[in-house]
Automatic annotation (TrEMBL):
It comes from the Bacteria. The lineage of its organism: Bacteria, Bacillati, Actinomycetota, Actinomycetes, Geodermatophilales. This is NAD(P)H-binding. Gene3D superfamilies: NAD(P)-binding Rossmann-like Domain. It comes from Geodermatophilus saharensis. InterPro entries: NAD(P)-bd_dom (IPR016040), NAD(P)-bd_dom_sf (IPR036291). Residues 7-195 form the NAD(P)-binding domain. PANTHER family: FLAVIN REDUCTASE-RELATED, UPF0659 PROTEIN YMR090W.
Amino acid sequence: MRVAIAGAHGQVARRLGRLLSGRGDTVVGIVRNPEHAADLESDGVTPAVIDLESASVDEVAEAVRGADAVVFAAGAGPGSGAARKHTVDHAAAVLLADAAERAGVRRYLLVSSMGVEQARQGTPRGMDPVFATYLQAKLRAEDVILPRTALDTVILRPGRLTDDPGTGRVTLDHGVEPGDVPRDDVAAVLVALLDAGKTDEVVELVGGSTPIEEAVAALP
């Protein structure tokens, strides 16, 4: 399998890249910072240095051409302001979808966030405004990408991410109660979703007791 990962130097994305390359898949990692290329190469990932906040659809399409799937795992990061939530968490995700369509790549996995539905009506009472903007940007990306008939989309909404070792057991479903999930397990779930060929799903993910492959197989 050939997979292109946007935001490939992120914590979940690097775990995903290592899992895929470690079993022999071909992985292209899209990163903004050229200084991150060496890290990707050490993971067995081929870097493509592209700034998704300024790139054209054609530039990104060339990077993902020939892929069996694309994964959007990019994010503006917790230290960024509201403006970059829009340009990365929303606009860059849509750009990747546009590029996948142009390159003829149907499968699109979007790493979103649990809680985005809270932001559908604006900023929830008491929520940090920048975090609310982040949720709104993620939700806008979901709403634009999921209906596209040229894409087979899965949206994964993890709970609060931790660096605890993965357990290989999760809760993966619709309407999951908020909770934590190790980044290791998020990456493993993404691999399982790719392998299972799931499409048109919006699912939430936290730690749990069900083995990952069973949890993915149980999805409709």
